[in-house]
């Protein structure tokens, strides 16, 4: 029974992308792949049953059909948390439930991918953390570390000591171009010398953090007021239009596919953004644009979103959104699978797991 646990140093590190990329590649190579997410923290009712939203989505992509109680044996609902935190005794031990589900799903499979939730220590409060699941189920762990200003070298070294031979290797994800050389020539060799196999380095891809204009409006609590029919345009990043027009134009030319966050009263910046084919304008302060801007928006087919909050607050929200937006669109799934397939050492992985 071969099992791969896909965990990470923190939440929103790319676990779903790696799980789907691994699963689809192994299926393409003729292997029977099982999938389970032991602990689900995103409960959602679908067709009258409670699922973990991520697990439900990933299972569909991998073509599996497990019922929710097997797919995610521990579902962290609001009531679950209240019971766990208010209990004066030790919380119930769910590991046997997880083991039974894993064994059932793994039956007649060449390999089973076990998806983590949050970081490797998430779930410690109810004894369902990734460290324990890996050890109790005898899994090999692949840990993702996503670049966010820096990498979590210390965390990876601690995991090496904690997991020992259960640690198959690490994947370094979302590396920007200016940090790629240092990652390959300094960081990866350092980790390898400390006994941590670097299975792959995945470059930053703007598409993976992109979001549709319609989804952006919903998540920001705003509404699209012009060019509604183009609300499926893709936003990859954002610029704040608070500077003088001349300076703004210089920055804008370097950042294609960037939404422009600007005050509703800055028609000068708004017009430059429209003429420069920004995917959308986000007007702050609940201020509506003048008729000239609205007309140009319709002619150029560039949506305008109006939001209540101030420019700074919207920018902070946007930053978090683009960092944490889920893989749901087919184009992003294909791109994510390609990134994983192209940048991970599958031959080493299969050889180490005895799948070659």
UniProtKB/TrEMBL annotation:
Pfam families: AAA_26, DRTGG
Positions of the DRTGG domain: 215-320
Coiled coil: none
Superkingdom of the source species: Bacteria
Gene3D superfamilies linked: HprK N-terminal domain-like, P-loop containing nucleotide triphosphate hydrolases
Subunit structure: Homohexamer.
Alphabetical list of PANTHER family matching this protein: PHOSPHATE ACETYLTRANSFERASE
Protein name (record): Phosphotransacetylase family protein
